[in-house]
Design brief:
Arc Repressor Mutant, subunit A; 2 domains; 12 helices; DNA-binding; RNA_pol_sigma_r2; RNA_pol_sigma-70_dom; transcription regulation
Amino acid sequence: MHAFHQDSDEALMLAYAAGDSKSFDTLYSRHEAGMLRFITRTLGKAQEAHVEEVFQETWLRIINGRNSFRPQGAQWRTWAFAIAHHTAMDHMRHMKRQPAAEASLQVLGEANSEANAPEICALSIHPHTAHPPSSISTEEQVFWRAAGQQLLRCLEELPVEQRAAFLLKHEEDCSLQELAAHLGIGFETLRSRLRYSLQKLRQCMGSYLNAFQSQP
């Protein structure tokens, strides 16, 4: 019996395109949670009622696009999450809730934001944030839960294009080059979205970020 769980995402997608439905089952179970989390956070609270709709449409597009996937072009995860991004953006446009134009953003200075990027990213993916383990103190658990809730509120305040760029890069760990290509935007445009998102998140996280930076 073939051990599908040991195959790479790319190998599974190629097998699925060749007619092996079990390969798709493995891909789906492997990425279902991450995809749902990304779509939920990209759409934001105002669109939470439509998360399941966008989630299902994303997987339908992945199914319909199975013959167009080329492993030489990108990792499957980058390709699939770019599809999720486009599906979410299509939904937002359909609902006439387009993100604010980036031209209206205040230019705050690149050096300041990039200097603080590691701390913001660590907070966003820190395992204590959503589900603090019992091995840490009660005080620390309270802090990380509060930090996680604040981070979600901060993400809600970002324009959706910046929010999606941040989530794809720092939580789904997609490369900038692949992301820019699959999102159909310029490399510098993507960098700009990430830079502005980090600036705004740092300002919004305030004391939580300061407390994180002071930890040994």
